[in-house]
């Protein structure tokens, strides 16, 4: 009788955090083989075949480094491999401007957003948007460099500073400020065509941002029909067929999708909800192999 080969899942990462450890456990629990691929140890022959990346049946992209993760995913896809999430959906999610364009095109409610490329035009945009407003880098995670613009003087000072921070910060991505009810927002988790979990993220005192990396607290959130509908539509708008974290704001005008995340963390979600997020992610990955 022939030997049955195990399905091999390549986890591409630059750090093995709690999240990755749980994914590795979930792979083994399902009788598959995990390959932990440290991006620091690999190279690609992009004009030939002399790569040193281990072969896997499918790859799960878990890189913290956005740019490196995007390049690795693109190269693997060009060489005929399947990567979750796809390069194209990851490219859109990684850039807040591209995400907003995709959400708006799909008719999904999202905060009003203006973009400028010069301080004076940025200030002019803010006069139309009205203060207070929020400025964000187009690429970035964990709420870093997200700032509240309370008035024209504050806005000018922050934009002047960002001009000297490099090209990435010279695109002024400016959103209307939505006062969060009870200082909460929602993070939902889409895996394939299902919303598997949701949490409230509660900001600490005197903090605009609810990110748990900045001390925000996670609380269980029921998956209402509205949350499910918004989450699935948002995931589909950026490419669908993957694993996403959807950030939803709740203001006095209802729910709006703020961002879509393509390399989602779940270390605060699992203990709060009791839902086996890593297990459900690996179930989906294995389904994609079939």
Q: What would your notes on this structure say?
A:
- By secondary structure, the chain is of the alpha+beta class.
- 33% of the residues lie in helices and 25% in strands.
- The protein folds into three domains: 8-92, Rossmann fold; 113-176, ATP-grasp fold, A domain (Dna Ligase, domain 1); 179-289, ATP-grasp fold, B domain (D-amino Acid Aminotransferase, Chain A, domain 1), CATH 3.30.470.
- The chain has helices spanning 18-29, 66-78, 87-94, 96-105, 119-129, 152-163, 225-237, 269-273, 277-289, and strands at residues 8-13, 33-38, 58-61, 83-84, 113-116, 133-136, 147-149, 172-176, 184-191, 194-202, 217-220, 243-251, 254-261.
- The strands form three sheets. It has a five-stranded antiparallel β-sheet.
- The radius of gyration is 20 Å and the shape is globular.
- The mean pLDDT is 93.
């Amino acid at each position: 009788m022939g030997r049955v080969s195990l399905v091999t899942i390549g986890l591409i990462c630059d750090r093995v955090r709690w999240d990755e450890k749980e994914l590795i456990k979930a792979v083994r629990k399902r009788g598959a083989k995990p390959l932990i691929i440290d991006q620091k140890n690999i190279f690609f022959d992009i004009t030939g075949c002399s790569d040193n990346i281990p072969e896997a049946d499918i790859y799960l992209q878990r890189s913290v480094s956005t740019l490196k993760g995007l390049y690795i995913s693109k190269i693997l896809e060009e060489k005929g491999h399947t990567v979750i999430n796809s390069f194209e959906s990851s490219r859109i999610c990684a850039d807040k401007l591209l995400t907003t364009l995709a959400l708006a095109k799909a008719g999904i409610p999202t905060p009003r957003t203006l973009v400028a490329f010069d301080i004076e035009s940025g200030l002019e945009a803010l006069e139309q948007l009205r203060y207070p407003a929020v400025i964000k880098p187009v690429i970035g995670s964990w709420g870093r460099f997200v700032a509240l613009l309370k008035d024209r003087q504050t806005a000018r000072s922050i934009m002047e500073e960002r001009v000297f921070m490099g090209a990435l910060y010279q695109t002024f991505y400016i959103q209307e400020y939505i006062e969060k009810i009870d200082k909460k927002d929602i993070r939902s988790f889409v895996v394939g065509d299902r919303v598997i979990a949701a949490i409230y993220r509660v900001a600490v005192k005197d903090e605009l941002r609810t990110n748990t990396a900045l001390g925000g607290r996670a609380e269980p959130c029921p998956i209402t029909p509205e949350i499910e509908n918004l989450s699935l539509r948002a995931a589909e708008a950026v490419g669908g067929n993957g694993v996403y974290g959807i950030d939803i704001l709740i203001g006095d005008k209802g729910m709006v999708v703020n961002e879509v995340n393509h390399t989602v963390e779940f270390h605060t979600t699992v203990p709060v909800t009791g839902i086996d997020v890593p297990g459900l992610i690996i179930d989906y990955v294995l389904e994609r192999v079939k």
